[in-house]
Amino acid sequence: MEKTDNSIKEIIQRAKEGNQIAFSTLLDTFWNDVYGFQLLRTKNENDAEDITIRTFSRAFDKINSYDEAYEFKTWLITISKNLHVDLIRKRKKSMLSELDPRGDEAKRVLDETPTVEDQLITEQNLANLLRDIKKLKPHYQKVINLRYFHEMSYADIAKELDEPVNNIKVKLLRAKKLLAEIIKKK
């Protein structure tokens, strides 16, 4: 679905006005460009995806500072590149101090096993949905679980995962899109 320059400008304007559908459209339109750019740079799917999520979070947070004299895609790639540089700096600093708290968090997330919520889902005849959710990457599973099964607000999820609210919104948006694609493939 190729979008014209004028339609992109209209979508950006609607996003500046706070239209969530416009944000979703921008995410869908430019996700592959930003993700592909980061995949080439990082050679790591998880890092590429994380940086891409952060890119859209930052872009949506700062959408009013976007200058239409530049291509929107170029603006996104610049944000993405800066986030990658920040990630490299943080990792170097982390290696120097020999502290890696992210590793402990990753182990806790990976060690989570199905709980009482899973049994409840089965009892409510939602086993297929759960099976589809489990096809998602762990961080997407986590945000969907917290939002829809624990009924937590965006702010509570952000606090729980120690991430900005906009990151949580982008992750949920992406998780729902990926889940819809899994369900459609059946």
Describe the structure.
With 186 residues, this protein is an all-alpha fold. The chain is 77% helix and 0% strand. Helix 2 (20-42) runs antiparallel to helix 3 and helix 8 (138-149) packs across helix 10. The two termini are 23 Å apart. Mean pLDDT is 81; it is low at 105-115.
Shape: globular
SSE succession: HHHHHHHHHH
In helices, the fraction of residues equals over 70%
Class from secondary-structure proportions:
mainly alpha
Number of helices: 10
Q: Termini separation (Å)?
A: 23 Å
Q: Report the radius of gyration as a whole number of Å.
A: 18 Å
The count of DSSP E runs of length 2 or more, i.e. the number of strands, is: 0
Unreliable runs: 105-115
Report mean pLDDT, rounded to a whole number: 81
Give the DSSP E fraction (strand runs of 2 or more residues). Answer: under 5%
Main beta-sheet strand count, sense and barrel state: none
Summed up, what is this model?
With 186 residues, the chain is mostly helical. The protein contains ten helices and no strands.
List keywords for this structure.
mainly alpha; 186 residues
Topology:
Blueprint: H1 5-16, H2 20-42, H3 45-61, H4 72-97, H5 101-111, H6 116-123, H7 127-133, H8 138-149, H9 154-161, H10 165-184
